[in-house]
Amino acid sequence: MFMPFTYSSEMQLSRQFCSYCTCHGYIRRRINSLNTYLMIYFILFSIMIYYHSLTSSKTTQFDIQSSSSSSSSSSNRIMYVIRTSSKFYTTRLKYLLQTWILLVNEHVYFITDKILPNISYNHFILTEKICGHEKHAMNTLCCKTAHDFIFFHRYLTKYDWFCHFDDDQYVNINNLEKYLSTLNFNRPYYIGRNSWSKPLNRLKQPYPYPFWFATLGAGVCLSKYLVHLLEPYTRNISKFINGCLKENYHDDIYLGFLISAYLNVTLTKNIRFHSHLEKDFYKDKQKFFKIFTEQITFGFFYPYNYPNFLPNFYQSHLDRSHIRTLHCLLYPYIFECQIKIRQYLLNMTK
To answer: Rounded to whole angstroms, how far apart are CA atoms 159 and 148?
Structure first.
């Protein structure tokens, strides 16, 4: 039955409207304050759904001895060589051992000064006696990089790609594999991120021409054929070191010079490789969340250059540079990551 509109009902409606206006302003402020949380929630939820549709495999823990990690061996036969130091084991390397290295640990080798825990003896080369005490000097860096090629030449028949990384880098191995699978390792490929926006303008003989070089701090990959071509220049440690000192180039510049001047191979630039020197990479939060799943390497430099805006899946002393959190965002199907993400979402909604 139709009820006539009375004065009392008009007053009641007016009060309801005023109450609505007050509540509406409050709700709007609350929504604005939750925008960041909703964005993170949406990203986490989307990634979880996506990866769950791809695989149901689980890794039960972050442990370098995990047998399940060896099942993720590289179909592209990639060798990963990491330059590190015993003094950086607890502040840098241990976070890599808990994350991406787990997925390819049988293919990872280390150039280091002293014996490191949780690493097989046949997976590292000690450099202290030959390269001296750890310091960021030209001869020391060239000496340690020269040891990369000991591993490269030793396993030339086992691998198709040979990649160098530092101990402050996270490697998205899935993206690296996909990228390298598009290239022919039987051709000479020198892949990395150019250090400078312009080539190095060399005037010195016998090669007075500019050349590009890739920063080792962002990661560098060489094809099997290029490693073979480099053998005359990298067959022993002293030859590589003497070449650095003669040209007055640090290790990454000298490597680029060898490849460009003596082998006539140009750097294949890839901007998805990142070093800790990129000060602006972690400044734009929205841009980072938009592109981070597409990147290949991430460089971390605590406490200055690292994604401090990422959600805290772990206590700060367990994930100082947010490497473990980044790993969980990229691999949310890992069992431990599922637990951490659920805990975070639960705490966020309280």
So the answer is: 14
217, part of any domain: yes
Which residues, including other chains, have CB under 8 Å from residue 272's CB and lie 6 or more apart?
Answer: 175, 179, 294, 295, 296, 297
**Which residues on adjacent β-strands are paired with residue 163?**
80, 221
Q: Which DSSP string do the residues of 84-108 spell out, in sequence order?
A: --GGGIIIIIHHHHTTTHHHHGGGE
pLDDT tens for the chain, 350 residues long, are: 434 434 344 445 445 444 444 444 544 554 444 455 545 555 555 554 444 444 433 333 333 333 333 334 446 799 999 999 999 999 999 999 999 999 999 999 999 999 999 899 999 999 999 998 877 799 999 999 999 999 999 999 999 999 999 999 999 999 999 999 999 999 999 999 998 999 999 999 999 999 999 999 999 999 999 999 999 999 999 999 999 999 999 999 999 999 999 999 999 999 999 999 898 999 999 999 999 999 999 999 888 899 999 999 999 999 999 999 999 999 999 999 999 999 999 988 76
Query: Range of 57's domain?
Result: 38-350
CATH of the domain at 192: 3.90.550.50
Residue with tokens 């597409």: 294
Nearest residue to 216 via CA among 265, 264, 254? 254
